[in-house]
Amino acid sequence: MSKEMKLLPELRFPEFENKEWKISPIENFCDVYRGSAFSKSDMKEDGTEQCIHYGELFTKYNDVITNVFSRTDKQDGFRSEVGDVLMPSSDVTPDGLARASAITEANVILGGDMNILRPFEGVNSIFLSYLLNRSKREIIKLVSGTTVKHIYPSQIITCELPVIANETEQQKIASCLSSLDELIAAHNDKLDALKDHKKGLLQNLFPQEGETVPKVRFPEFEDDGEWVETTLEQVADYQNGKAHEKDIDENGDYIVVNSKFISTEGETVKYSDTAFCPANLGDILMVLSDVPNGKAIAKCFYVDEENRYSVNQRICRITATDCDSRFLFYIMDRNAYFLSFDDGVKQTNLRKSDVLEFPFLIPTDPVEQTKIASCISAVDELIKGQNEKIEELNQHKRGLMQGLFPKIES
Question: What pTM value is reported for the model?
Answer without folding.
Answer: 0.86
